[in-house]
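This entry is retained here.
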Amino acid sequence: MRFRLPVRFGRRLPQLLVGLVLYGWSMAMLIRSGLGLDPWDVFHQGLANHLPITFGQVTILVGALVLLLWIPLRQRPGIGTVLNVFVIGLAADAGLAAMPDVTGLPGQIAMLLGGVVANGLAGALYVGARLGPGPRDGLWVALTKRTGHSIRVVRTVLEVTIVAIGWLLGGVVGVGTVVYALAIGPIVQFFMPWVEVRLEPEPAAAVPVS
C-alpha cells in the first residue's frame, strides 16, 4: 500500500503554517494595542493573569482542552486542528517578546487596525488551506450540529459567555473588541477568494479491460 499526500498538500501545509504563525502574531498586536481583544483572547488573557504561565501557553492549554470536548461531540480533527493548538500560542509568545509596548493613541490605533487586518488574512489562510478547523471554531460547529440551533445563536452565546468570564478574570475588553467583532468577518471574506485552495477530485483508477 502506498501512502499518498492529499491533493496539493505541498501548498496547503505551508499555507496553513504561515496562516497560524500570522494569527498568533496578530494576537500579540492586539494585546500590544491595549484597546481590547477578540472574545477568546479576552478569556486567554484573563486566565494568564491568574496562572504562572505565559499568554501563549494559556492559548495552547485552552486549545487542547477545547479539542478534548470534540470527543463526546463526535467532531473529527484534521492536521490543521492539531497544529492550530500549538503553533498559534508559540507565535503569540514570540510576537509579544518581539514587540515593544505601544504608547500614544495613534500608535495604539495603528497596532489595533494592523492586528485586525492581519488576523483576518491569517484566518483566511489557515481556513483556506482546508486541513481542518481550529479547535474553537470546531466547537461551535459541533454544538450547532448537536443542538440544532443556528450558527448565529450558538456562536453568539458561546463567545458572549467567554468574553464575560475573561472580563471577570481581568481580560481587556474595549473598543478593539467591538472593532474586531464587526470587521473580522468581512476581512476574512475579502481575502478568502485569493487564498482558498480549490481541491480537485482524485483521478479515478484505470480499470483494465480484459
